[in-house]
């Protein structure tokens, strides 16, 4: 580094420190509500200053760079515990080096590779190995199938796929298409499982564990892509959200901002293909130099046993997970904190009642979004806490929203209208240099659909979260509902357009309208479809059951079917679902025939009053 550059960097660091001290001084003047506010704000600013240094100096320390640093600093420390086996930082570093050595000549910097694997240590080995070669990695949802899976490859431009041994059969239908598209498939096996599929484990055993040149993974721009994480939305097929190094680094600071340290043990039962587990969980573990207990799949009955066995202090959750845990016997544990999202107030209180005063830290933010809220205080029912300084950094607004027209309310000048304190509104986040929106791979149209323009002044642009929120007098922010054609069920986003297209392939269905309905005692909304049967056909519950079982992941399968003679449309010929959502699935208040997905009967069976009562009372699981 030249002397001039060194002086500039030192000068910038001093400026950052001065700004930090000034902000902390001002914060005391404004008398922020609690000491937690000041501490939390200090940590946010400190972490943000580091990212600003990366941006100004073009010397980015990525999540994988940080992992390499930790492997050099604490090589013998437990990094990952999986199914009773401990993997140290040094061991995972060497194993990822072997992956990099295997593919060193097969890929080049800037290539995209796809990863279809369940939770296991080699998910990280492959992920880090390709990052060390300067590649972006696309995490594929292990639940998606057939044409949706094929679509994922095409939109992110991946030319190489690594698949877990337990998931190879999910490629059965599309393997010929992948090979026709020139996509090379590697499987985590010792021998080639079938023609055209390469084995990787044997190649890794023969490869050197020495690191490849650090220059291959060097990053100069925070905004360059490092991952593609697929999310369902209103467009039907999964969308590849572009995850830049900036977003990955922000997520990795979550645990640290909440006050976690390297001595913590973090329990991650969520799927690694989602940003919560990979970016917040694994990235956060690396940032701290802590230990992660990785679970292949969440098990309510094993949760507290695992926590006691491994001295877990922090766990990751979604709201549905905590609801399942509330049905488990109380156990002794050392858990101090839970970090996640979607925790309902009644479940929150019951969780505290049964398992003690665990600090539940909600995080709000979509995979592709440019805004994050964090409930560092732990106020029940809030997804975050804002304040004067937070609003200076993050430009967000709540605007009036018309649920019937499914669009923001605009005034006579064409601009959106702010809601009052405590009033529910659509959450929008301003797109600017401080909060960029990177969109989706494969189509500019998909990205543009998430942007609202001319919101408050001509020419401005805001990211449309699609979420209805409210902010109270104490600046606590609470989630109210989702809008549009996406709803959440079992912790997953369900795109109604995709489900509608799948239902339309059934020969007796003329038209379908898919939406979500609330089921008492359950998080999110369960899938329901209003269906018009072709005049010459009759409804066949067994055929429809077999079709959705084959074509849709479990969380996307409609639990309820409502037969209709017609579907209400808006003036712009969009399906009008407001009245359908409001009427729910009660057979006593709906005159049309209703059906329920019954796995024991392997059919959609008539939804009678007794079946309805068993669902509402919780006697029948959904």
TrEMBL record:
| Entry superkingdom | Eukaryota
Class of this enzyme: ligase
- Residues covered by the AMP-binding enzyme C-terminal domain: 498-574
Please give the Gene3D superfamilies that the UniProt record associates with this protein.
Answer: 3.30.300.30, N-terminal domain of ligase-like
Q: How does it sit in the membrane?
A: Multi-pass membrane protein
Q: Does the keyword Metal-binding apply?
A: no
Residues of the AMP-dependent synthetase/ligase domain = 68-383
Supply the name of the protein.
long-chain-fatty-acid--CoA ligase
């Amino acid at each position: 580094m030249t002397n001039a550059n060194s002086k500039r960097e030192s000068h910038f660091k001093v400026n950052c420190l001065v700004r930090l001290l000034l902000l902390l001084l001002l914060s005391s003047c404004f008398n922020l509500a609690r000491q937690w506010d000041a501490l939390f704000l200090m940590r946010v600013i400190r972490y943000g200053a580091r990212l600003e240094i990366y941006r100004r100096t073009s010397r980015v320390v990525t999540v994988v760079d940080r992992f390499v640093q930790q492997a050099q600093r604490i090589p013998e420390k437990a990094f990952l515990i999986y199914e009773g086996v401990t993997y140290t930082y040094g061991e995972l570093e060497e194993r990822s080096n072997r992956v990099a050595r295997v593919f060193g000549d097969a890929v080049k910097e800037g290539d995209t590779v796809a990863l279809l694997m369940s939770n296991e240590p080699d998910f990280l080995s492959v992920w880090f190995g390709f990052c060390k070669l300067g590649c972006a990695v696309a995490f594929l949802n292990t639940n998606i199938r057939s044409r949706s899976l094929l679509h994922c490859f095409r939109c992110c431009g991946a030319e190489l796929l690594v698949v877990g041994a337990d998931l190879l059969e999910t490629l059965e239908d599309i393997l010929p298409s992948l090979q026709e598209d020139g996509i090379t498939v590697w499987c985590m096996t010792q021998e080639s499982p079938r023609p055209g599929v390469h084995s990787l484990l044997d190649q890794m055993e023969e490869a050197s564990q020495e690191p490849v040149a650090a220059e291959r993974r060097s990053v100069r721009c925070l905004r360059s892509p490092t991952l593609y994480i697929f999310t369902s939305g209103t467009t039907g097929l999964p969308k590849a959200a572009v995850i830049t190094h900036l977003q990955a680094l922000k997520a990795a600071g979550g645990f640290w901002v909440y006050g976690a340290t390297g001595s913590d043990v973090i329990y991650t039962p969520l799927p690694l293909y989602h940003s919560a587990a990979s970016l917040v969980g694994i990235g956060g573990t690396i940032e701290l130099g802590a230990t992660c207990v990785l679970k292949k799949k969440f098990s309510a009955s094993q949760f507290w046993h695992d926590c006691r066995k491994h001295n877990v202090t922090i766990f990751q959750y979604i709201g549905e997970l905590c609801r399942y845990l509330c049905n488990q016997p109380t156990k002794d544990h050392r858990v101090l904190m839970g970090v996640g999202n979607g925790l309902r107030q009644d479940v929150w209180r019951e969780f505290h009642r049964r398992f003690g005063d665990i600090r539940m830290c909600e995080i709000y933010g979509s995979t592709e979004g440019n805004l994050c809220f964090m409930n560092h205080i732990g106020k029940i029912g809030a997804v975050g806490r804002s304040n004067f300084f937070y609003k200076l950094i993050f430009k967000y607004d709540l605007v009036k929203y018309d649920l019937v027209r499914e669009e923001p309310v605009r005034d006579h000048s064409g601009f959106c209208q702010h809601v009052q304190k405590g009033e529910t509104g659509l959450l929008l986040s301003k797109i600017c240099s401080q909060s960029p929106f990177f969109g989706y791979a494969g189509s500019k149209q998909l990205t543009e659909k998430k942007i609202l323009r001319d919101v408050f002044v001509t020419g401005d642009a805001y990211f449309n979260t699609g979420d209805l929120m409210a902010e109270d007098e104490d600046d606590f922010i609470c989630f109210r509902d989702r809008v549009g054609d996406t709803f959440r069920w079992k912790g997953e986003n369900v795109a109604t357009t995709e489900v509608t297209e799948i239902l339309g392939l059934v020969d007796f269905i003329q038209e379908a309208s898919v939406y979500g309905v609330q089921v008492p005692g359950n998080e999110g909304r369960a899938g329901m479809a209003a269906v018009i049967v072709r005049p010459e056909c009759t409804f066949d519950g067994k055929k429809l059951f077999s079709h959705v079982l084959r074509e849709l992941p479990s969380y996307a399968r409609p639990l309820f079917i409502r037969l209709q003679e017609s579907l209400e449309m808006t003036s712009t010929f969009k399906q009008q679902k407001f009245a359908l959502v409001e009427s729910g699935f009660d057979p006593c208040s709906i005159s049309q025939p209703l059906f329920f997905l019954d796995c024991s009967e392997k059919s959609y069976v008539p939804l009678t009053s007794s079946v309805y009562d068993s669902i509402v009372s919780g006697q029948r699981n959904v």
